[in-house]
Amino acid sequence: MIGWLEGPIQSLEADRVIINVNGIGYLVHIPLSTYYRLEGAARAALHIHTHVREDALALYGFASENEKIAFEKLISISGIGPRLAQVILSGIDTSELAEAVMRGDTRRLSSIPGVGRKTSERLCLELRDKLVLTEKEEAARPARPSGGIEDDVISALVNLGYKANAAESALRAAREEIGSDAELSTLLKASLRRLTR
Fold first, then answer.
1. How is residue 63 annotated by DSSP?
2. Fewer CB within 10 A of the end CB, N or C, for the chain?
3. Coil, helix or strand for 19?
4. CA-wise closest residue to 44 among 86, 81, 11, 7
């Protein structure tokens, strides 16, 4: 099993990264929180969960150990697979997830695409005593050039399960609030805030 990967970034998208390790490109699925950490970086160093099924082998990467722990707790719940766990961690950071679970805040959890009322209730019930995370996630990120940022934001939001027209509306509102010079990660976060209200 692969538990850690480190190397130059070959390509980076909102939900995946290809890491070049000694000439081999590993495709690693990542949540948005990890994407924010990698944005603008030349190299990646990720905690890896290797997900093995009969018909597939997939790698899921995380910038922090807490993200990986949260991911593994999420996929241990019946009905939550790796893709939904990735979406959940893209819609809420690990410390906020732990707080929402402890408070039984099903409304906040239900605001994440793909998480309905029943799933949010199951999350609160099954993770209450398992998800104790103390690390506060910091996302210090270098700036990125602004070409095509709107398309990248809409693409990321659609990949997370939001409808294209809802993503576009949230993006317009975020642009009005934070201005035209915002970097991708700031704009994406602002758009997500509008969609999860």
1. S
2. C
3. strand
4. 7
